[in-house]
Amino acid sequence: MSPMNLLLHICCAPCSIACVEALGLEGECFAITGFWDNPNIHPYTEYRSRRDAFCLFAKEKKRPLIIEDEYGLRSFIKGVPTIDERCGYCYRTRLEKAARIAAEKNYDAFSTTLLISPYQDHELIRETGEKFAAEFGVEFLYRDFRPRFREGQKQARQAGYYMQKYCGCVFSEEERYLKEAKA
Question: Domains (ranges, CATH) in the chain?
C-alpha cells in the first residue's frame, strides 16, 4: 500500500512536532509535506522566528516543505471582516490556500497543525477544512491532536525551537498584553 500524500499546513514548529508524531503512530502510512503560509503573524520578527523554526524542524526531520513566504499583514488586516470574525477569516485564508495547493499538486489530502491547539476554535477549523475539501476535490484529514498539545510543547522546548506566546495575529498579541497589564 502506498502512503497517503498529505499536505500539512504548519502554523509553527512546536505545534507540528506532536502532529507529525501522532500521524506516524497511526496504522496508515503518511508521506507528509509541511506547508508554511501564515499571513496573519505579526510583527515581522515573530513571523520570521516562527518560519525559521519551522524550516529547522523540517530540515532536522528530513521533511519536504513548501513555503509561501510572503509577510501578508496588510492584506490580512484588510480582509478581516470584524474583530470577532478574525479567527474564521484566518482559518479560511490559510486552509483555502492549503486545499488549492493540495489539489494542484495532486496530494491525497490536506490538514493543519492548528488542530492541536486547545486555544483555537476546533469545530470551525474542521468545518472550514471540509468546506475547502469539497470545493477543491481533495480530502481534509481531520484529527483531534489536542491531547498531545502539552507533550509537543515540551518536546519543542527540549529541542530548542522558538516558542511563541500568542496565536500570531496582532489582535491576539493585543489581548496578551491586556491580560498582562491586568495581572
Answer: 4-182 (3.40.50.620)
